[in-house]
Write a structure and sequence with these properties.
The protein is 16% helix and 44% strand. The chain has a 6-stranded antiparallel barrel. By secondary structure, the chain is α+β, with helices and mostly antiparallel strands. The chain has a single domain (3-164), classed as Pnp Oxidase, Chain A (Roll), CATH 2.30.110.
């Protein structure tokens, strides 16, 4: 079952689950950082380009060939992304993002493991992103209509996706 289908099924029970404390969450582990949890994750996708070409003997019907693989950016939302770095250091995802923005810095890429957890924190699925780095940061939405004032979104570019479980 794809992530989008799974997410749409989960969304129907999400509001009730949030009230009962049994909501599904995504646990994110990035090399060198503490575990983080998010309520949303989108963009776990991979696609192979389709190349078409004409072959003279096929009555103008195009043939297809496999092109390069493309992967989408992963966006995490409604979570904590200011986790401390290794050994209690002050490094966090936002600091990493700011270094990405500084073209004089070397681009640091890490492995990210995303786990879908049920309400009892049991692992349902797991994805691994290779050579990932933060490419977009959306700060908290500040509103008086909502009690959840610390919503952050962060997107990561990556060079490959593997699924396990």
């Amino acid at each position: 079952m794809g992530l989008r289908n799974m997410a749409s099924q989960l969304n129907t029970n999400q509001m009730a689950a949030d009230k009962e404390g049994t909501a599904y969450q995504f646990e994110v582990v990035i090399s060198g950082y503490r575990k983080m949890t998010f309520k949303s994750c989108e963009g776990i996708e991979s696609e192979v380009d389709v190349q078409t070409y004409l072959d003279g003997g096929r009555m103008n019907a195009p043939k297809t060939a496999r092109g390069p693989q493309r992967v989408g950016k992963i966006t995490f939302g409604k979570g904590t992304v200011g986790a401390e770095g290794p050994n209690g250091g002050k490094s966090n995802i936002f600091s990493w993002y700011m270094k990405v923005c500084d073209s004089s810095q070397v681009l640091k890429k890490e492995t990210i493991v995303i786990s879908l957890l049920d309400g009892e924190r049991k692992k349902l699925s797991e994805w691994k992103l290779i050579n990932a780095w933060p490419c977009r940061w959306i700060g908290p939405f500040l509103t008086t209509d909502d009690q959840d004032l610390t919503i952050d979104y962060v997107s990561f570019a990556h060079e490959g996706l593997f699924m396990s479980k």
